[in-house]
Amino acid sequence: MTDGKSFSKRDAERKAAALRRSDEWNPQRVLENRESPLQQLQQESRKTKTAVEYDATISCESCQVQRKETGDDTALCEQHFAEMMAL
Ligand SMILES: [Zn+2]
User: Fold this and answer.
1) Distance in Å, CA 39 to ligand 1 centroid
2) How far is the CA of 54 from the centre of ligand 1 (A)?
3) How confident is the model at residue 56 (pLDDT cuts 50, 70, 90)?
4) Which are the contacts of 87, defined by CB distance < 8 A and separation ≥ 6?
5) Quick one: which of 34, 43, 68, 81 is 20 to 30 A from 10 by CA?
6) Alpha carbon of 41 to ligand 1 centroid (Å)
7) 43 or 87: which carries more pLDDT confidence?
8) What pTM, to 2 d.p., does this model score?
9) What are the DSSP calls for the chain, one per residue?
10) Where are the domains of the chain?
11) 30: pLDDT confidence band, cut at 50, 70 and 90?
């Protein structure tokens, strides 16, 4: 708590930051239900990119091996992983 005389914008910001960290009041959670057009665009492009990459890797044997080994059906071989990161 503040001692009253040193209350400042900084204190308010610190309190707001503490609130943001708490689960009781999470603006991030609210934002997930009400995304900005920019965020939606970013998510859409990410989905599209992943879909394209996924199609390209379905026929890749190394990717299939990776998926079998990791049990993760989105796993990629080194080459495709590098390509994905480069995009
Ligand atoms: Zn691959």
Assistant:
1) 29
2) 9
3) confident
4) 49, 53
5) 34
6) 27
7) 43
8) 0.39
9) ---STT--HHHHHHHHHHHHHSSSS-HHHHHHHS--HHHHHHHHHHHHHHHHHHHHHHT-HHHHHHHHHHS-TT---HHHHHHHHH-
10) 9-86
11) low
